[in-house]
Amino acid sequence: MNNPALFTWITLCCWIIFICCWLALRNRTRENIQFRTNRQRWLAATGYVLIFTGLYLPLLTGARLLPAWWSLQATGVLLCIAGIGLCIWSRLLLGVNWSGGVAAKRDHELVTKGPYRVVRHPIYTGFLMALTGTSLVTGGGAAIVVTVVCALGLYLKITREETLLNELFPGAYAAYRQRTRKLIPFLL
Q: Which residues of the chain have pLDDT under 50?
């Protein structure tokens, strides 16, 4: 049975859970050594609004680029659920070391357990999985563009993060990079 509204609601609930977890955990971190400006915070918030608008725009316009096949939408729901689950698991493991921006924390620790044993940026992996899954469910061109732009933006952010982590953990981070991938296990 094909029920696109149910698939859409499931992805929306996943994103609501994601947002609630991020809001609940946002102040449970160590003190930043480098602080984010108010401008950076507002840009991040605006970015999220644009992301979610783009993801769910097809619901308002009715314009789908992708076919509304049950199998495609079911795959999208599974990707979204798995992606949000990976994001939350990774965020909980990162704990007090998490930062919304690229910033060092006081007494920063290198986390290498759980999904961090396989990929260095599992929150981004999960986020991209959830974006891709939601795009498959809503099927809009804007959702696909948002997913691609976010992937490119996160890839650039990873470069800055890896430079910082290499400075914070000389030798240890290089060894960690040798045995893990950036985003996709066994590939990238």
A: 1
* Nearest CA-CA partner of 151 in 180, 176, 182, 179: 182
pLDDT tens digit sequence for 86-118:
999 999 999 888 887 778 778 889 999 999 999
User: Please, what are the domains in the chain?
Assistant: 4-179 (1.20.120.1630)
The per-residue pLDDT for 123 is 96
Alpha helices in 36-171 (DSSP H): 38-61, 70-94, 122-138, 141-168
C-alpha dihedral, 188 to 76 to 25 to 45, nearest 10°: 90
24: tokens are 């609940």
d(CA 142, CA 138) in angstroms, rounded, equals: 10
